[in-house]
Structures
1.
Amino acid sequence: MFTAREYSEDVSNQDRTAIARLTHRIGFGPKPGQFRKMLKQGFKVSAKQLLNSGLPNYGDVKTAIGITDLGAQPKPNSELLEPYKVAKRAQLRNMSLWWLDQMVDQDFPFVERMTWFWHGHWATSYSKVDEPVVMFDHIARLRKHAIGDFTQMCEEMVLDGGLIYWLDGQLNTANSPNENLSRELLELFTLGVNNYSETDVKEAAKALSGLRVVKNSGLVTKEPRRSYAGTSTVLGTTGNFESVTLARHLSLTTACQSFIPERMTYRFISPASSMMSTPMKPSERVKSSTPIIKKAFGGRQILPTMEALVFSDAFQNPINSQVKSPLEWLVSVLRATRTVPSRYANPDYLLKLLDTLGQRPFFPPSVGGWPADEAWLSVASSQTLIQAAQLIVSQGDLSPLMDVAKKQRIDALADWLGVAEWSDRTKTAFDGALQDPARLAALAICSPEYLVSA
Amino acid sequence: MKNISRRNFIKLTSASAVAVAHSLSMFELAQAAGPRLLPTGTPILVIVTLNGGNDGLNTVVPYLDPIYKSLRPQLAYKEDQVLPIGDGLGLNGSMTGFKTLWDNKQLAIVRGVGYPNPDRSHFSSMAIWQSASRTPIKTGWIGRWIETQPENPFLAISLGSTLPPLFQGAKRSGTVLPLSGLKIPTGMLATDFAKTSKKTRLDGQLSATAARSIRDLFTVADIVSPILKNPAPPAADLPTVIGGNAGGESNLSAQLDIAAKLIAAGVPTRVWSVSLGGFDTHANELSAQSLLLGTVSNSISKFMSQMRTIGRSRDVTVMVYSEFGRRVRANASDGTDHGTSGPMFIIGERVVGGFHGEQPPLNQLKDGDLAVTTDFRSVYGSVIEGVLHTPVDRVINGWNDRLPLFTA
């Protein structure tokens, strides 16, 4: 039996904060014992371990969990309609739980953390795409490039059936442009607001015109008859742009070199400078680190950029706290309590919970992705979190608390959950609950110190 | 309809109510400037956000204008499909409830509303509307108003699951109330949460907000839960149709029903926020938009009728807006792309009914888009002064323009 102090006595609060940020923001929070190990290894070793962890070999996931092309929806009076709907719901459920499982189960889920980041970036929702296999493939493409080459990611995403359908790209023809995909590609995916003109939007729409999407499979083809033939001029460059060449062109602009690191800074360091969910320039609090992170993105390689971010001053600057988003909160709780979503007593509850909290995977609220910080803190979310916390801890593994003596439980609680330190206020509440690990755990995961990544 | 009596409400919310409301007393409500019943006569603002960019031209329709017909032949409404309201304009045929309000001089339509150099991004444009600032700032306009008022978790309530940016303050924000109501732990766990959510000076801003969100949950739940069990006030003077009154049922009407229950009970809320999505009609616009506008019109008419039933109709003002209008010319998908200005609706018995602002002329489009003839901040200005009784520049820095939207 270990006590917290044996491991943590030489660790400064600053180190605890940095390592807590590392595990919660770059991963999905510590599994039992991981935080102490990281404290012992120190920030640098722990960061490298997490960043270089890679992915396990998933094999053929689609076959394993039964994700298939369901074909066109049967006619309203067909007896095939009900089985079709049942199959569709089952597939969506399976792929949702499979993804949550990966986040919860992997020791070092950095690539899934990045895939999750990109899901919020190229925010495409099942609510309109409405086809499990198309959304699965969409996320699989993001995963494939999650820590790789951003240019390649862009080249592949502009031909992703889910994304195109989501943004009406299949309705965009030479004769009658639909600018939805074009605008969001410039504004939200590659350049950032104010870094292009209305003419650029119109010209880029020409390059993206003439695509067909088979709704149920996501198969994309370009039809010359509906496509714009001729050159277009985007951001001062004229050429025979098509989707892929346009994506490449956009990804290699200087605006993009700033914009993507800014989005990473926003999500992994601090959304505090943002106004609402509008992408915007980082504030003073990250200024000294910004040039370094942008420079690291020079070759459009994502992993080195994340490395620069993690090792930047801003990442460690105490001012840059952020609110855990609901998915981050839930996954970190499931990791701590060793609760694998698909093997949970009622897996559908977990999906419903994320839905209630406003952050179910595959369902971003809009193409702008999910909000941040205070938007997650409300009377409504507090009640849902408190209910969920009670339920999950009542079924989870609380041995990291059970196995230590009562008087050591407050320290054990911090190391178990990866919290830098408890406030005196929160400790006072813990004092009355030391004899009851479930109550203690529920209080801790709903405490300000856990809801906020300090 | 069960009201909380004034005496009970004060009892419930005072520090002396230890025995009455166990968990509530833990939260030292009195210290947090505990809420009191809202006196009749106090103005109440209901903000209705239409998400996605509502097509103003097919809402307040210039059905006589030949340019309207020529630029969107498949999307143009004909004379017999709209509800004429003068000036060659007609309300979308689904908005019968609004037509009645118009005829009763309780509907103001502000035409051509937007802001300079329109931004066609949903996010930027909504951010501009919700912050009431053309340049990015972090707070919403109601959030800033909240911070001019004494702390009160009931002051501004948004119905839904996440905090709308317009309710975001620098330090204090509005309250979010889910449609399903609030459930809280009892017993020892409640006592514990009272401790973990206590104010401490050592909290950073986000931790302080996290603590307050828990604290407010217990405060609000204790008051709100019994009230939500009440039936919604009846819309007594609306015509009835099969299966209910003409107000109809929708998510928007469910949100407004909750507001109606709480207003009926005298909860001290000055600003309500409700919303309806789906207005981003890039394709197949006609039926979709008409359905949505019907919902807006029916739900608000029903709500106003409920307010008459409970004697608060003179106090309530409803304001409807969307982040932008849409392009005049239709696209090839029988929809419209993001545009610029659009109409705003202001509803209430103290409202100066009729048209305000100029209709953007269709023969003077700029890059195919409608002109902005009224800055939305002028509408906000009128509301901030006329309904929230606060000097405009305390909420919108440096803004002084107003419209004559309210009778004295």
2.
Amino acid sequence: MRRSLANIFQLGIKELYSLRFDPVMLLLIVYMFTFAVFEEAQNANVDVVNAAVGIVDEDRSQLSRRIGDALLPPRFQPPDALAIDEIDAAMEAARYTFVIDIPPGFQADILAGRPAVVQLNVDATAMGLAGTGAGYIQRIIAQELNAFLQSDGATPAVNIVTRARFNPNLETTWFQGAMSLTNNITLMAMLLTGAALIREREHGTIEHLLVMPLRPVEIMLAKVWANGLVVVIAASLSLFIVVQGALAVPISGSIPLYLSGTVIYLFSVTSLGIYLATLARSMPQFGLLTMIVYVIMLLLSGGNTPLESMPAQLQTIMQLVPSTHFVRLAQAILFRDAGLAVVWPQFVATAAIGALFFLAALLRFRKTVTLMQG
Amino acid sequence: MNAIARLSDLSHRYKKIVALDGITLDLPAGRMVGLIGPDGVGKSSLLALMAGVRKIQAGSVQVLGRDMRRMRSRRAICPRIAYMPQGLGQNLYMTLTVFENIDFFGRLFGQPREERLRRIKELLESTGLAPFAGRAAGKLSGGMKQKLGLCCALIHDPQLLILDEPTTGVDPLSRRQFWELIERIRSRRQDMSVIVATAYMDEAERFDWLVAMDAGQVLASGSPAELKARTGTANLDAAFIQLLPEHKRRDHLALIIPPHQVKHGSPVIEASALTRRFGDFIAVDQVSFTIEGGEIFGFLGSNGCGKTTTMKMLTGLLPSSGGEARLFGHPADARDIDLRKRVGYMSQSFSLYSELTVRQNLLLHARIFQLPRAEIEARVKEMTERFGLDDVTDELADKLPLGVRQRLSLAVAVIHGPEILILDEPTSGVDPVARDQFWALLIQLSRDDGVTIFISTHFMNEAERCDRVSLMHAGRVLAQGSPVALISARSAKNLKETFIAYLEEAAGTEPAAAQLGTALDRNNQVAAPQLRSKRLPIDPARRAWAYARRESLEIMRDPIRIAFALLGPIILMIAFGYGITFDLEDISYAVLDHDQTPESRNYLENFAGSRYFNQRSPLQNYAEMESRLSKGRLTFAIEIPPGFGNDLKRDRQPEVGIWLDGAIPFRAETALGYILGVHQYYLEQRIRSESSSDQRPTPLTIETHFRYNQDFKSVYAIVPGTIMMLLVWIPAMMTAAGVVREKEMGSITNFYATPVRGLEFLLGKQAPYVVIALLNFASLMLLAVFLFQVPVKGSLAALLVGGLLYVIATTGLGLLMSSFMKTQIAAIFGTAIITTMPAVNFSGFFAPVASLTPGAQVFARIFPSSYFQQISLGTFTKALGFEALMVNFWMLALLILAYLLSALSLLQTQER
């Protein structure tokens, strides 16, 4: 047993040395954990930010101008004035997501208490912001109208007060920053570990290891710990420097708990990486296979769109994928300040799935050497 | 002297390594010129520079009287040169058949069908490959691959034939046949010059004129007889060693091999009827031998004859399919850890960790072999001294010269003091001096330490040094015994002749040379006049088509790539189409009702009735609310204050509290929108029902038109967007990897060495990927319409034209990527990373382009995704036609042109 641990340690150190001389991989690690996290958090917005609005003002009254002026950044760009016959072309070219049409005599009708109709055209193909954006505009128009009339006649019977827990201003950057960090952990762990195994196979050093007094399980565990360590260090730095620092995301939960979850998750994905490497016969094949697996994990684990919106069967299938549990775990710890008492099922599930992949890879490990004969 | 090539002051370096160091030399025309010397002395660089496939750095090269530095003159003479690079079948396409390979080269030289077929027939018959015309090049033996390479080189009647180590690793019979073939061809075409590089000195004896090279310099040149006379030696091996500079020669010692003392113990290594099959291919067929302790046992055979496979079975790396291998009387089982400590293994590729230093390599192995900690230091020191590694202990293994690296490999293999040493071609590529030094170490190990050595080689002189050898061919042992006994049994001159005799016997043929001769003579009469046929005007389209055709054949024979290309998009489309959705339903919520009156229940009923919400068991207190929110069980909670009902009746504006889980902002925002909608509806209902109230209803109505997607279903936006995304991602990745693959495999040389121009190469490579991408497009459209029920509401023609332009643009983007990627893995990941962000974030897929920051908009404009997103979404969902989308078509066309021109300007037409 002690012998085994010493071997695993020695081989892992060797693994780290190998990585030190792979500039492409190192560059990719730096890119993925700095620039990529930052850019995605800044730009991957699916909520109402900087929306393009057009206004057809046929009234040209104080009230109609007031409505236009009330559409403010960061949610809206300053609205552009349009003529009524430009609406269709502008919306077809997707220049505007929203076009407001204020009819002639609007202010006069309102003042006289006559019913008045404002048209709001929404490009409903912009799924991310069409629904919520339309809601915002409706409320802004109503507010402006009330303020204009300065009447309390319209005070509602019931007031509603909303408070968002965990992220009071519903800033997407918080969410995107943490999720893109999570996604990049997945990709890099799979890629590093799998590529390390394939590289050893291509250089013939894996055979060398197998004729030494080593067992495959030791070789695999060495890869798991060494590559996992690299990713966990990179991810921690990224969390402190990029997410908390540059993106200024306040992390409310326990970072040590999150990082221990990450360690368990890394066991799971590095094992998956090794398993994929035993399926592929060459580096390019491994690359293609990993890309497909990664993209599916990226989009369907709940980090991009909520899991509960997916069809039930798909949700069930995704329970077998470790990233689903890790995404849930990361959201719970980082944003909701959940403790171990809350997230332990995810810890267990991630570890169990990891053990399955590890076992499957172990069973194929010796066979991969013979595969190189093709 | 009439020179075929004139080199003057030619130098070439790779970063810090000097490959050629100021060479000035004239090579005679109409002769067979040999470049001799070990690996890494600059032979290959010199040949590549003469063939025009490598860019000249310093000095000048004139071939056939033309300056090879000038593109124009290279182009003019390249149809008169043929170049066969180093490595078995390096310029061949392994999945293509023999016929298809030659045919491809014929097409590159613009030969019309009739001429091509005639030439292929001639070449196949004269090389004896005719019966194998339909076999894939990858399934040929080494010797046959080299013959095929020669056919490909000769299809256009070159005046100068440049061959880089054409026979390395080929069995001696095939080697002899190869040279006989060359001689036949030369006798037919007196004016043809041949320049050959070789590492086999015995082959060099038959050349007309030799250039001996070392360390990038010419040691001597002249006929073999001249060289031997000048050095006063009997053979070229010795002559070469004499020609080496003093300091290198000094290390050379004549090898003395003490005779093996036969100990009559039990055999150390035994194999009985050992067999290994891979599918229906039998790699090792009933091989048996026994090896005594302390013996040096050699395995002699060509590449791919089963030597490595046998050795792997002995080490237990590979299970046998039949028979048995025993070491020290124990079955060779990989799981037997104690057995492994008694065996040392050195594999073909000198499997060292190139990124560790010499010392680190030794330490790592010592520790893994569990040497006692106290002894490790001393043992490592002993090894570095004994194997002459003292000066380099802290160098990286990667930086060592080949000969030193090989000694390190041996040191690593014996650090644990094994009783058996298994060495798989340990000396390939090493110069003769280093090879003899290595053998001195082996002899020491065997005779002094009593280590049993099992070694494989394809060098005859090494095999002669073994106590016993086994001659192997095609998985079988042809003969076994001491070299002397084998030679005398066949009464042959030397071991090579002996091997050839056994090979001929095994093939069950007449001596092959005679057979070849008749075939050639027969052809000679027919072929000779035709060989001078006039060259036809070369058609660029024909060459582009040659590339397109070949690429398609290759893709169709690569099941993994074709599966990825055709099924990948379908799988991903299904996953995305179902998986990505902005439609939120069944949002879970719970109620904390402090009031519990009919009024509060009336308010809450509106939520319970909405299809968007899913009510969970009510909350008892704040703690429970907090706990359920933080577990992610609830998306929001509604709190009704105490006295809600009373306050409502008295118009005191009670305040309802909503507690949202803000962890996923998008979900929270959407939920909030729905909540406010329900709330508003409640207020309106209330006003309507209490018409007696003095409140005046708001006269304003906001009519909201959800255009293009009245049901507001994500699928109508996601499916067209997914098509956009998959059609950039996969075609760009496939194309980039397809071009880089040629760089990695080495077949890019064919582009450098033949008259193909950059544009022809690029368009030829792109065309098959455009076709694949169009198939993807078709399958994705079918999925959209039939599986996801997203109809094409606008112009189908516009969608089709847009799709065509888009895939031309995305494959073009792939071509552009490939111009600066070096490995397939980099091409795959680099292209994925570079195309994903613009396709997902800057295309209008998730957020409209109009909402992007100005910087991001620029980014969106230089990638094709934003334009096709408009076309795809426009024709599927917005019911648009050509007119409304026109600008997008123009922009795509512009991008196609821009990508192609950039790729063309970045494409290298020579190796650097």
